[in-house]
Amino acid sequence: MEAAVDAFYRKVLSDDTVAHFFDDVDMDRQRAKQKAFLTMAFGGPHNYSGKDMRTAHARLVVNGLNDAHFDAIVGHLGATLAELGVAPDLIQQVAAIAESTRADVLGR
Amino acid sequence: MPTVTFGNRSCELAQGETVLDGLLRHDIPAVHACKTGSCGSCMLRAVSGQVPEVSQIGLKDAWRARGYFLPCVCRPTEDIEIGETAGDIRVAARIASLVPLSGNVLQVRLVLDGPFEFRAGQYLTLIAGDTLARSYSIASIPSDGPLELHVRRMPNGQMSTWLFDDAHEGDAVRIQGPSGECFYVPGRPDQPLLLVGTGTGLAPLYGIVRDALACGHRGPIHLFHGALRPEGLYLVDELNALAAAHSNFTYTPTTDPIERAVAGSIPKLDGYRAFVCGDPAVVQLLKRKIFLAGAAMREIHADAFLPSAA
């Protein structure tokens, strides 16, 4: 899990189309959140609520966060898991759980 | 509104006011520095009344259990009585020497009157008089004897102005701490280490390098020290001598942008353990660059120097 979070986060920060959304965030806190998110996406225990997702991303939506950015992040997540040898059907499940947060993340 | 009692004085807090602001508004002397719940300088002990949990975040369990809290972030909902604090959390010390290391950095050595356990790279709070406190990284290692701090002269800085202009050998101060997670942990002696700092961010790194070498670290140790101008680089002779004495240690002083100096010398940082200290903006940038160059997040230890509020 540690390696997956690092690899995922590294991809996101290396992608100029989305990296600027992370300019002002504390990396340690962000990494903890990404770990919690991955745990959830793999069906593990979590305490995320739709409201948390909505509140956490509200400022980013004001700054232009849109579907293309969301797709890019989901793409990085899938690519990370594929590199780590995760089976395609499991990646599909993870992507579906990520997809289920789209409306909250984008404030719709 | 809740009332705060401190010795034979008491004050009623205004709506939303912190305990620290209430005390200061009533001219009740209270040590403080960052006013954001980070540095720990202002810690007090409640002997009666319940303090909000948020005012105890980050304190050791043993301190929490005895009622210690941070008045700068404490907005109580009931009356509080504050008891004696000094003896068990603060150590009396004397200034042993004051030596300029560069035009605007002063080496302050302290001799302590009591025990003080720390790891090289941690920081402490230096307290002068009744209310003045500032946090400084420890540049020495425990076996050095006196504690060494590197103090940069800040424009209108109360503590640095006192240390540079008015303090003398033998002057009494107090210290509190230590705090901080940026230090060397023995083990994996062949792992490559990267230490990067700007300005007086060199202080904790100087301790960490010497600690790692004293612990027998065998892997390569790279220290980069950045400054805007050549005169901002200090301890150059000492660090060059250390590099001459230890073949696995390299020292790179630079006035180039520090992240470029690091990337130019070591483009890939997979497997590295990194220590980053100094100005918060530089620390954030370096953490990101070091991570993107391949270091694992949990291998990046950082200490960003927080500004003081007053």
Structural features:
heterodimer, A: 108 residues, mainly alpha, Globin-like, 6 helices, B: 310 residues, alpha/beta, Ubiquitin-like (UB roll), Elongation Factor Tu (Ef-tu), domain 3, Rossmann fold, six-stranded antiparallel beta sheet, globular
Please describe the topology of this protein.
The complex is a heterodimer of chains A (108) and B (310).
Chain A: H1 2-14, H2 27-41, H3 50-62, H4 67-83, H5 88-99, H6 102-105
Helix pairs in contact in A: 1-2, 1-4, 4-5
Chain B: E1 3-6, E2 9-12, H1 19-25, E3 44-48, H2 61-65, E4 68-69, E5 80-82, H3 86-89, E6 90-102, E7 105-112, E8 123-128, E9 132-137, E10 147-152, H4 158-166, E11 172-179, E12 193-198, H5 202-214, E13 221-226, H6 236-245, E14 249-254, H7 258-265, E15 273-278, H8 280-292, E16 300-304
Parallel strand pairs in B: 1-5, 12-13, 12-15, 13-14, 15-16
Antiparallel strand pairs in B: 1-2, 3-4, 3-5, 6-7, 6-11, 7-10, 8-9, 8-11
3D structure, described in words:
The complex is a heterodimer of chains A (108) and B (310). Chain A is mainly alpha-helical and 108 residues long. Chain A has one domain (2-105): Orthogonal Bundle (Globin-like), CATH 1.10.490.10. Helices cover 69% and strands 0% of the residues of chain A. Chain A contains 6 helices and no strands. Chain A has helices spanning 2-14, 27-41, 50-62, 67-83, 88-99, 102-105. The model of chain A has no long low-confidence stretch (mean pLDDT 89). Chain B is built from 8 helices and 16 strands. Chain B is globular and about 60 Å long. In chain B, strand 12 (193-198), helix 5 (202-214) and strand 13 form a beta-alpha-beta unit. The two termini of chain B are 26 Å apart. Chain B is an alpha/beta fold. Chain B has 3 domains: 3-84, Beta-grasp domain (Ubiquitin-like (UB roll)), CATH 3.10.20; 88-179, Elongation Factor Tu (Ef-tu), domain 3 (Beta Barrel); 193-304, Nucleotide-binding domain of ferredoxin-NADP reductase (FNR) module (Rossmann fold, 3-Layer(aba) Sandwich). The A-B interface holds A 2-3, 5-6, 9-10, 13-14, 26-28, 31 and B 284, 287-288, 291-292, 296-298.
